[in-house]
Amino acid sequence: MGRCCLNNNDAWIPESDDDGDHIDEEETFFDLNEAAKETGDMEHIVFPFDLNETPEQHQHNFQQQVGRRGHQRKKNPRLSCDTRLQILMWLLNNHRKRDKDKPYYGAYKHIAQMYNVHPRTVRRTWKQARAQKEAFQRYNMATKAKNAGRKRIQVEQDTITSLTMGDRTCIRDLEEMLDIGPETLWRMIKRGDVRAHTNPLHPGLQDPNMLQRVKWVLDLLEGDSPQTKRQYQPMFDFVHIDEKWFYLSKKTQRVYLGKHERGKYRSGKSSKFIPKVMFTAAVARPRFNAQDECTFDDKLGFFHSLIKKQQRGIKKTETRGQW
């Protein structure tokens, strides 16, 4: 049995491909340093390159080739309302000597070169102005570019206000009631057509409650008669007390750790019934002396309201809890 030997230093000589067709050596091998032949058949070479070129030269040549290959015409920028109005004013000021309603010969081409537009654009602007003049209207060069594209979905404000408060508590409920998509509703929120509002629960005061509040405010006035009651009391003998409940811990709490630090494991008897503690704060009006120096900073104290009490048994047979 013969042994097949292969020498890696030997050059490969093409003879035929898998189908048995002969391979031409001249078409197979090419020199990378050779300039590409400018022929019509460039299917196998998209952009010829030279290995001896610097990256900057290669990028410059690549951009030039892309620019030559571009077949689309560069679009002129859309004229703004101010530019169209300037073109109209120039045409009105440069009219014929005998006919003031027509610009002189070659005015369209002249103004088109000044503003880098086509003469047909200038002629269309002049035709629109003449139609407005014949209809006894003001010159209006407003463009209609804003009307292009998909039309905006309009939602009347009465449709939103007619819904009950319970039907628009979240975006999902509101989009279902208005029969629109969530993206449309988000765009309305960005435009300001729909805004978020937090509706607090106010105390329902009755007439006796409001009368009592007004009476308390009137009692703070100094004086014996309605003519002398024009100034409030300084309220130096008042102490304002307020209490606040705080949870001892939160169900979820965000902290910032180091790169290799592990989060602390927290546990409790229940994640729903977290113990609370009450704090009471007492403040009063600050005091100043004759030199306008603060002698009292209005802070009386901030103390917690905890009562240590012996636990009572639920039944008579149960023992009392320990202190």
Automatic annotation (TrEMBL):
Annotated region (Disordered), positions in chain: 57-76
Segments crossing the lipid bilayer: none
GO molecular function (one): nucleic acid binding
Gene3D superfamilies given in the database record: Ribonuclease H-like superfamily/Ribonuclease H
PANTHER family, alphabetized: OS01G0541250 PROTEIN (PTHR47169), PTHR47169:SF3
Protein known as: Mariner transposase
Protein's organism: Spinacia oleracea (Spinach)
Native organism taxonomy: Eukaryota, Viridiplantae, Streptophyta, Embryophyta, Tracheophyta
